[in-house]
Amino acid sequence: MIKKDLGLLLLIVVVGIVVAIINPRFLLPINLANTANLIGLFGILSIGQAFVIITGGIELSVGSLVALLGVLFVDFVAVQDMSWMLALPLILVLGAVIGAVHGWLITRLNLQPFVVTLCGLLIYRGAARFYTADGTAGFAFGQNFPELEFLTAGRSYGVPNTFIALVIIAVVMWVVLHRSVFGRYLYAIGKNEEAARYSGIRTGRMVMTAYVICGLLTALSAIYFAMYTRSISPASHGQFYELYAIAAAVLGGFSLRGGEGSIVGVVLGTVLLQELQNLVNLLGIPSSLNFAVMGGVILIGVLIDQQWHAIRAKRRLVSAARQAETRLSNESSLPVVANQD
């Protein structure tokens, strides 16, 4: 863990202690289980967003994708009587294809990620509403899918399976990002894409893969959310989820400039965000202020990131000045050899 991650972990512990003192219900098993479930749901979404952010991009359409893919999954399973074992991989493939399309538009047609994903946000939301005729998609009374419900909304030894899935995905993505050549390439692209291209990295392919990973994890998250709510209103389902994902990534140390961040950080960012949401609920603060809390969290995260960059830049300048001064003093102390000619 880097210093940022340790600092964030300490902050989570401090906030948790404060919340528990203010309202002891925070430590009730049912509240901890519900919080862990939400951490799993939003954590998977945030990891996908993090892979895009590290390249210097942004993915604004994840909330609308959660709605569209969730509607399709529920329709396939509950209405079309498709086996969930077939519907699940089909939705995952569809999410990956959408991510690939975004990556292609950004890398091949040189469109801005903000523009591409903003258009996706509007298109997928409209498609979800059109598909259901602006109605609600859900499971009929008495419809049960025991295996699917256990995997997506059940618990193992009291721990929500969504949280277990987040831990497994986080471990896999940690290896991909921090222990593979692909991960090093993503960091290089985020730091300086042009320099990475000149060094021989196929930047277009790497960026497109990052968007595919984001689309895949968004699709998986959409299935979990669909089974969690069991009823989807396409006009509101998944609304502003992209902000949750961005906030968690920024809190976790991912710079919106790209090239920085860790998987541990984004998971801790998700934990802190849900902890703050839980604090708002337990203190009886109106739920309408949730978005205000999110906005404040993102702003604080960006300010901290900016100050962190400024401090690091000053340290580099001071270090370079000291090295230059030491070099000059060493050169001046060398004996001067007289010319014999």
How would you describe what is shown here?
It is a multi-pass membrane protein. This is Monosaccharide ABC transporter membrane protein (CUT2 family). GO terms for molecular function: transmembrane transporter activity. It comes from Rhizobium azibense. It is found in: Cell membrane. The chain is mostly helical. It has a single domain, classed as ABC transporter involved in vitamin B12 uptake, BtuC (Orthogonal Bundle). The longest helix is centred in the C-terminal third of the chain and has 44 residues, at 290-333. The protein is built from 13 helices and 4 strands. A two-stranded antiparallel sheet has the order 1-4. A two-stranded antiparallel ribbon has the order 2-3. The mean pLDDT is 87.
